[in-house]
Amino acid sequence: MHGILIVGYNCADWVQFLPKFPLEDTKERCTNQSWERGGNASNSATVLAELGNEVEYFGTLADDNLKQFFKDDMDSYGVKYTNCPVLKNSKVGTSVVICSEESGTRTIIHCKGTLTELTHGQFKERINLDNYSWIHFEF
């Protein structure tokens, strides 16, 4: 069976759950929090793997303190990532996600980091199109 390749961005999400959205210039306590691997392509790869598909994520990975977190999390869902270029001296993008339990809404504050996106050259040099039945680009 040929797998699915999902191409795009990844980031780290720090998700904060609060009873209600905070007012400006106040201090609030959250009811729960978690670190999650994020980014549309990264999340799509996880969902497809959970549905039983053979999936590979292809995007740049930062050689920073969160690299092992990404690898461990993708491993736990069976998402392959061995073709991903690991970029030295770069930082993955991060998001703070504020979830309001009262309204059910979420607000995302994103910092792009210094991780660059894939290049055409990286794609050509690392990906054999014959290995995939479907390729999805998420940019």
What does the model show?
The chain is built from three helices and nine strands, in the order βββαββαβββαβ. The chain is of the alpha/beta class. The chain is elongated, with a radius of gyration of 17 Å. The protein has helices at residues 40-50, 67-77, 120-126; strands at 3-8, 11-18, 32-38, 55-58, 61-62, 86-87, 93-100, 106-111, 132-138. The strands form three sheets. It has a four-stranded mixed sheet with strand order 3-2-7-8. Strands 4-1-9 form a three-stranded parallel sheet, with helices on one face. The protein has a two-stranded parallel sheet with strand order 5-6. 21% of the residues lie in helices and 36% in strands. A hairpin with a 5-residue loop joins strand 7 (93-100) and strand 8 (106-111).
In short:
With 139 residues, the protein is an alpha/beta fold.
